Amino acid sequence: MGRILAVDDELDMLALLKMIIEGYSDHQVTVTNNPLEASELLEKETFDLILTDLKMPGMDGLEVLAKAKQQDEEALVMVITAYGSLESAEEAMAKGAFDYITKPFRKEQILLAIDKAMRWREMVRQNKALKQRLDGN
Amino acid sequence: MAAVLGKLKKWFARKRTPRPSAVSLGPPPALLERYLRYKRLLAANSAILTTVADIQVKMGEGFLFDMHYVRQACDRLGQEVEAMVGALNGMAGGRYSGLDTARQRVAHWVAEELAGAKMQPAPLALPLREVREGLFYGGKAEKLGELTRLGLTVPAGFGVSAYAQKLFFETGGLVSFIREAIARSQIRNLESLREAGEAIQAKIMAQPLPPELSQAIAEHLAQLSSSRVAVRSSALQEDSFFSFAGQFETVLNVPRDQVEARYKEVIASQFTPRALYYCHASGFSYQELAMGVLVMEMVAVRCAGVLYTDDPRGGEGAIINAVSGLGSLAVGGVVEPDIYRVEDGRIAAQHVGEKTHMHVAAPEGGVLDVATPADLQGPCLEEDQALALAELGNRVKQHFGLPQDIEWALDAQGRFSLLQARPLRVSAKLKADYLPPRIKGAEMLLANGIIASRGAAAGPVYLLRDGALDAIPQDAVLVTPRALPEYGVVVGRVAAVVCEAGSATSHLATVLREARIPALFGAKGATAVLQPGDVVTVDAFYGNIYAGRLEELLKAPRGGDDAVRQTRAYKVLERVLKHITPLNLLDPRAANFRPDGCRTYHDITRFAHEKAMEELFQVSAGRLDEEGSRRLVSAIPLELNIIDLGGGLSPEAANLVKVRPEHLTSRPMLAYWRGVSAVGWQGPKPVDLAGFMSVVMSTATDTNITERLHEKNFAIITHDYMNLSNRLGFHFATIEAFLGAPGESYVSFTFYGGGAELPRRMRRVRFLTRVLEDLDFRVEPKEDSITARIDGYDADALDERLEVLGRLMMISKQLDMVMLSEDAVEQYYREFSQGHIPPRA
């Protein structure tokens, strides 16, 4: 079970993400339509995965990505982008996003992408633990 | 004699005079413009059908989309439909202005649906049993109104409408205060949004209610018997914004004299930083931030909780959560509730929670958190009570047709009350959706069809050849060579549709998706492989057809997701689509095939496309002259002038006045010419004297024919288009072909005249009709004339038919002369079929 933060100014999309992810997996989703609130949440809490829209008023997804990376350089961020704005998704990938997904998408797509991210996170954790054990020896 | 010789000399001299070299070889601008408009119209047609297909797939197959997607798709459709209507009117000199009126009408309907229902004046308050949908009291109050009318126990109460909130906001300058506070706040500063929210909340609390609202609340309160009430929010858009923007205020145990203040508190609770951020981004409107409020008598509860009529995690049975005292602690994890799982009328599992504390009504109002007395620490519900509650839930579920999430309370006398009911989202397990691409052990008859409408269905095969649509039996699998729009009438009768040709963006595919009828297009060989009457299963998930009935496939969910269907974006799109996808104009020959018969964007698209083809056909009807044309020179003595509107001739021919067949690059022209040259000029058929006399007589009396005999033969071509008007012997033919995308490609053919007397000409028409019908043309013969058309096939299939048409024209050029009897019709038909029509695949 992981903790996911979802950030999107479109309320419908947020509602759907929460419903779908919580309905089909064991992950818990915290949602906000305001990237500033997301930024505040990232300071206070830790999340296994951050899903963020790219284009939002006031602060864009790239800033959410930067904030997450500033808090934890291994933070996993997946950006959600509208079809036709792939360049900004590529920019996000260059800046350290783990993955991107274009909307509209099928629920299976987002669930598989989340699954992949969570597996990766687990692998990194295990790696770290093994390394620490080796270093300790 | 000298005069005759002189004339002959002059004639020969004229024949040898070359054309002036200054003649322009560029196409006539008017023709080119008409063709370019047609191409623009086709591009719009394709964009519209593609967008509609995309919307239908996104809606039907469980995609997550938002209002941004909905608006963008509607904008794109609106623009393309406008372009299409504009292009048609450009081609037709504005004759279809009525179509633009229809377009504006539909655009208006779409815009209205996107804007959502406008809040109408409604009573400020109503008793619960009178609250229904459409009065703007919010979902919670509407549902409870429904349950009350159903005869279930709901505490007495009343609703305050969202319209009352509008009235409240419009008095005393609240609206301008809210707008200014939002405008002053900084979107990039959370603290600033918080401050603005607090300022708005303080202003709302300080503002007195309008006297009429105050009075309405007082009057309804007077009807209640309890001294304490609950004041709860009842949002208009429960499932989008409000479902996660934070729980709005619910105030329990309110003394009567505090109801106005608590009403304002509930209203004010909307103005959170999240809501203000949203208002900043999209502008403040009543539509987004309007709520009804519910005032209900407090129940003297013993225990309360939540009942899920189905397991939200997809398991079996109903789940009941129960806590002692008020239900406010049943969810949220502060207190461990009792949990009952009820399956098939028995308690399948029970867990008694450690209910250390509970909420009770405070004497002065509000709620007290107290330690749970020992006598209330045991199970909240007896077994028969849990079963009765589950049964109650079942009634509610059956009434609304969906699993429900119900708040309930049990009083000291053991009576249940329902406090809220809303649809429950039950998750299906993801793996349950998985369907293998190939069903093991099943006989696959066909593979790799294009999925035109997703789903699976089974039924007996019905082969449709020639438009006998009325004869299709109920629940058959319709199998047909092509995907024609008029097949839309089979909706409601067939289980599935299989077409050998056609694309997923055709008119028919749109109609079938709308009706949720599984369909495979491009299923080559289907009419040969599938045997009439045999039961088959059409798998329009993977594009296959199996022998027999495969329950495994038929049980598979078609796609889509309840959660998605409950979002605002989905509901809006569903409403908008009613003005977009239905096709009412199925048959161009029907009386409603008129601009004012167009009720949807799809109708307009279909009408405009059909009429544009007619307009394009007319390109050769006007008087064409040799300006801008070149002579086609070949071994066949056929005088033909070519007008190239783009890509119809190779670049080497750019400056040539005379071109040869090898210069042709127009695909339809090349196909036709293959047929013409395969037969060659075999000279006229031997003509008997009666036939000859008949020619002389009929040409002399038919002024139309005498006039047209002076016309030249023209072919207007592009790389994918041909409009060839042709005089061969004494008859006239126009062959038009467009070989583009499958949904746009067609060949049409008109033919009339001839040299012989009418009965012989009519026999030739009968001969042509038989051949053309064998080639799948739709033929309309009328005395000695024919109009025929074929569409719904891809360009390759039409290419083949154009070649046959070329042969047919050469063979039949003077056939009327020898059509002495009906036997001749049969004889020439047999000869042509055997010698010139390739066998079917």
Shape of chain A: globular
How much of the residues of chain A is beta strand, in percent?
15-25%
Regions of chain B with pLDDT < 50 over 5+ consecutive residues?
A: 11-22, 239-246, 691-710
- What is the CATH fold-level name of chain A? Rossmann fold
How much helix, percentage-wise, in residues of chain B?
Answer: 25-40%
Walkthrough of the structure:
The complex is a heterodimer of chains A (137) and B (841). Chain A is of the alpha/beta class and 137 residues long. In chain A, 54% of the residues lie in helices and 20% in strands. Chain A has one domain: 3-Layer(aba) Sandwich (Rossmann fold), CATH 3.40.50. Chain A is built from five helices and six strands; from the N terminus they run βαβαβαβαββα. Chain B has 841 residues and is of the alpha+beta class. Chain B folds into five domains: 31-117 and 568-611, no CATH class; 156-297, 2-Layer Sandwich (Dna Ligase, domain 1), CATH 3.30.1490.20; 301-411, D-amino Acid Aminotransferase, Chain A, domain 1, CATH 3.30.470.20; 430-556, Glucose Oxidase, domain 1; 621-836, no CATH class. Helix content of chain B is 39%, strand content 21%. Chain B contains 26 helices and 31 strands. In chain B, strand 30 and strand 31 (785-791) form a beta hairpin. The longest helix of chain B has 32 residues, at 29-60.
